[in-house]
Design goal:
globular, Nucleotidyltransferase, domain 5, 5 helices
Amino acid sequence: MMSRILAIDFGAKRSGLAVTDPLQIIVNPLAGIDTNHLFDYICKYLDSEKVEKIVFGSPKFADDTETPLTLHMNKFMTRIKKSFPHLEFDTIDEGFTTVRAKEALYLSGTKKSKRKNKYLIDKLSAVIILQEYLGHI
């Protein structure tokens, strides 16, 4: 039996999470959460669901160099790896996922008040990251 892949759009203040179904076909938004609560949230989620891999959207500048946020994300990823050494980890370029998430909300006819919900945008960014990742593997 297969297990889920979890994607994280890691942010300085907020992070978005998305997850596949156990067959790794369908991607669903999971949560938009304050980053300072992210570690505890992931620990609880991993205790209740079978996850085989965590994919981080890696922030980079247009010239493919790392951003200041990349260092924080790498530290966080190391912390998760130490706590869950049995999991696989991967990264994928998250370039423009936030812009694309906002555009998707706009094109779907979502009301302006809801489009300003940054947690919703973060969740959709994580969905885009995971959809692109699945397209690469």
